[in-house]
């Protein structure tokens, strides 16, 4: 195996999954979310030929913009969502066992019931791995605001998820 | 009426905080699913065709780029020829080399070239482990990433196409 990969591939390998999860906050259908990540990633890479780690919020912001743009094509989205509903539950996280799969579905359902701004803060902090400062930069918001949303989201999740699941690891 | 027990409130708040921290740690342990191979291929194709920095040896002239230049040159030559014909004049001076040059280049247009040689350069194998996808059967997912190098017979042009093969191996449940 050779290790000579273009720079963008390192970024892709490191962030693609979390970007996809982030895009799915607006685009629950996987194909739509992948489209948004693709557009956002390419746009980001063209604007930053030599990105640094501190540019990560811009990458998330590019995917966010691409997701919102995609939502505008309302009819296409409606059709795809209808197809997804007919095709069964949407999987957001890997699950190696049936118990893990039940847990991920419960988490997905609970997160989907949160307001969008809280969901965004939660996903960017936990799975995006961003600091509150970076989240504030991504969303163009105050840092205390996003920190508050994150804490509120976690408190709500705690009550939404089955108590028995909290200690399941 | 008894005054509120401040110590009790503090203990409740502390317990709540600990439970929230446990929950956030558990959530952080969940792995977001990887995107499909088509997304990687699309990004690779987009960056390969339009960015000069996408590949390390991008200074080489690719066949796609040659084809695009030929298309513009041919279009320009046709437009110029039409302009001269409609004006009832013959091309003189600087215009003649343009027509001659386009003719020479069009001899090696991509459509007329010999079939290219194809080579594959493997750039990585990724074993993503066993997945429960939307189907009930667990599968082991292995990805193989390669760059296809299509080299023209004359050796002057090369097209590189990224490709990702996803191999799904069914795993028996016991």
How would you characterize this protein structure?
The complex is a heterodimer of chains A (169) and B (174). Chain A is mainly α. Chain A folds into 2 domains: 7-90, no CATH class; 93-169, Arc Repressor Mutant, subunit A (Orthogonal Bundle). Helices cover 72% and strands 0% of the residues of chain A. Chain A is built from 9 helices and no strands. Chain A has helices at residues 7-23, 30-47, 56-72, 74-87, 98-112, 116-126, 132-139, 143-160, 163-166. The N and C termini of chain B lie far apart (62 Å). Helices cover 43% and strands 24% of the residues of chain B. Chain B is elongated, with a radius of gyration of 31 Å. With 174 residues, chain B is of the alpha+beta class. Chain A binds chain B through residues 1-2, 4-6, 8-9, 12, 16-18, 20-21, 30, 34, 37-38, 41-42, 45-46, 49, 87-89, 91-96, 98, 101, 104, 107, 126-127, 151, 154-155, 157-158, 161, 166-169, and chain B through 16, 19-20, 22-24, 26-36, 38-40, 42-43, 46-47, 50-51, 53-56, 121-125, 129-134.
